[in-house]
Design brief:
Elements (H helix, E strand, L loop, with lengths): L1 E3 L6 E5 L2 E2 L6 E5 L2 E6 L9 E4 L4 E4 L1 E6 L1 H5 L5 E2 L8 H12 L8 E6 L1 H4 L4 H7 L5 E5 L4 E4 L1 H6 L10 E3 L5 E6 L2 H5 L9 H11 L1 E6 L6 H12 L6 E4 L13 E3 L2 E3 L9 H13 L4 E5 L2 H14 L6 E4 L8 H6 L3 E4 L3 H4 L1 H7 L12 H5 L3 E4 L10 H9 L13 H6 L22 E4 L3 H6 L8 E6 L2 E5 L3
Parallel strand pairs: 2-6, 3-7, 8-15, 9-10, 10-11, 15-16, 16-17, 18-19, 19-20, 20-21, 21-22
Antiparallel strand pairs: 1-6, 2-4, 4-5, 7-23, 11-12, 12-14, 13-14, 23-24, 24-25
Helix pairs in contact: 9-10
């Protein structure tokens, strides 16, 4: 690829590309939109000129489910998942290693923990491992934090009577906090988050937009993400899930998304209560995005939607278990399932051990949902999954789990899971005049990418948001 750049970037021509879904080779962008498509178009005076040299031009990839702040926090976190730690001895050794490198008093933040490492953690176990320094460890599900006694004391946890603080039968703290991310974050000294590094890496993957699916964001957290978009630390578009009363910061490239509803099997709401929560969101003009990773969560959600009705933009997050009996309901309500096709590969050992036999045929369905007309989109769920969309695409096209290869989809269909609009993730964008110029240009042909989809991350030649390059590969 060769690029000739003018002093401004308001007008740009991409030439000699293989355009996704089009018979043309050239695309002109002006004022943030595609304004002309054709063949043998010539650069206008002062216009940026990109020679694609036969590379594949795609609608920009949108990650429809990600947690940006948590992903940025990875740089100051210690991976403690089964991929790296295999037993309690290894966990203790890793905590001691990190302890020796940090200034006195600084918290240790562990991530990715799963019971397969050393069973169910609580503060007593962590005290035996490292009693003197405050430690908090996040479960790989994202639902649970485990704190040692030093950490509990620093935030005066024993004096807090709030839902989510777990106590044993005698009323003593276990150090386990359920669904308390925001609450905990407000009470712990934290290092500045490098959202620019997250955005830069995503641009190198060809990602032009995110939907942040962090539950229960406070107004200042939403405003902070909007500020990162405004000042250019986040160069992509950002669609942010938030509670109904959240004020829109009204920043270019930033929009408010659906209201996230979290469901946990141990604290499932009554049907009427869930229906009321959905109704309140709908009446405020917001769709809902309901977290469903078990059979009962999905069945309850569909029953609530049967009661109050669905709204355009309503979504099922994850859909980890989708039984045949609810497929027609998903289609009838026009719900989009925002799935993570890479999880059956990344978590294969865990699922083989933990998922009941009767649920395995319904685990992370993909091709069978597409076959039955269920709307599908994809998100990385990073940092709880890999943030590389090309790894996700490779997984989606090679599925050999559950009921077999029937869950795989062709690459062109898999790509469409990342082409959706932020507010309608199952409606793929096209490269036609009038649409927003969010584009991903690869340096290889469609045939090369189809044969090796995982290589796409290495072949992104340019990432363009609103007609402006935010990433150009050195060629």
């Amino acid at each position: 690829m060769t690029v000739s750049r003018s002093a401004t970037q308001h007008s740009m021509l991409i030439r000699r590309a293989q355009v996704f879904g089009g018979g043309h080779t050239d695309v002109r962008c002006t004022g943030g939109h595609i304004v002309e498509c054709g063949t043998s178009l010539r650069p206008l005076p002062g216009e940026d000129d990109i020679d694609a040299r036969g590379g594949w031009l795609l609608p920009g990839l949108h990650d429809h489910h990600i947690h940006l702040r948590a992903l940025a926090a990875l740089q100051d976190s210690v991976p403690l998942g089964p991929e790296r730690i295999v037993d309690l001895g290894g966990l203790i050794a890793e905590l001691h290693r990190v302890d020796a490198q940090l200034p006195a008093g600084q918290w240790i933040r562990g991530i990715g923990y799963h019971e397969s490492v050393a069973g169910s953690l609580n503060r007593r176990v962590l005290d035996r491992a490292l009693p003197g320094r405050p430690v908090r460890i996040q479960h790989r599900s994202g639902a649970l934090w485990i704190l040692n006694s030093a950490a509990c004391a620093q935030i005066d946890l024993d004096g807090c009577e709030v839902p989510g603080v777990e106590r044993d039968a005698a009323g003593r703290l276990t150090g386990r906090l359920w669904r308390m991310d925001s609450w905990l974050g407000e009470r712990i000294p934290s290092l500045p988050l490098d959202l620019a590094a997250v955005s830069d890496r995503a641009a190198r993957y060809g990602i032009t937009g995110f939907t942040d699916a962090t539950p229960g964001l406070a107004q200042h957290e939403v405003t902070g993400l909007a500020a990162a978009v405004h000042d250019g630390r986040i160069v992509q578009r950002l669609h942010c899930m938030a509670p109904p009363a959240t004020a829109d910061p009204r920043v270019e490239r930033f929009t408010l998304g659906p209201t996230k509803i979290l469901l946990d099997d141990t604290t499932l709401p009554a049907l009427d209560d869930l229906a009321g929560t959905i109704r309140d969101a709908h009446e405020s003009g917001r769709p809902v995005a309901v977290h469903c990773v078990t059979r009962i969560q999905l069945v309850l959600t569909l029953a609530a939607l049967d009661t109050v009705g669905s709204r355009p933009g309503d979504r099922i997050e994850h859909g980890a278990i989708v039984p045949d009996s609810v497929v027609d309901h998903l289609r009838a309500h026009a719900l989009t399932v925002v799935t993570q096709p890479h999880f059956p590969i990344e978590r294969a050992v865990q699922y083989a051990r933990d998922v009941p036999e009767e649920d395995r045929p319904d685990l992370w369905r993909l091709g069978s949902l597409v076959k039955h007309g269920v709307a599908i989109a994809a998100g990385s769920d990073a940092p709880f999954g890999a943030p590389d969309p090309w790894r996700i695409l490779a997984a989606a096209t090679t599925r050999q789990v559950n009921s077999g290869a029937g869950e795989a989809v062709p690459l062109l269909r898999a790509l469409q899971m990342f082409f959706g609009r932020p507010d309608r993730p199952a409606v793929p964008r096209t490269l036609t005049p009038g649409v927003v110029a969010d584009l991903t240009l690869l340096s290889a042909s469609p045939q090369d990418i189809t044969a090796h989809p995982a290589s796409g991350a290495e072949l992104v030649a340019a990432t363009i948001v609103g007609g402006r390059p935010v990433y150009l590969a050195a060629r």
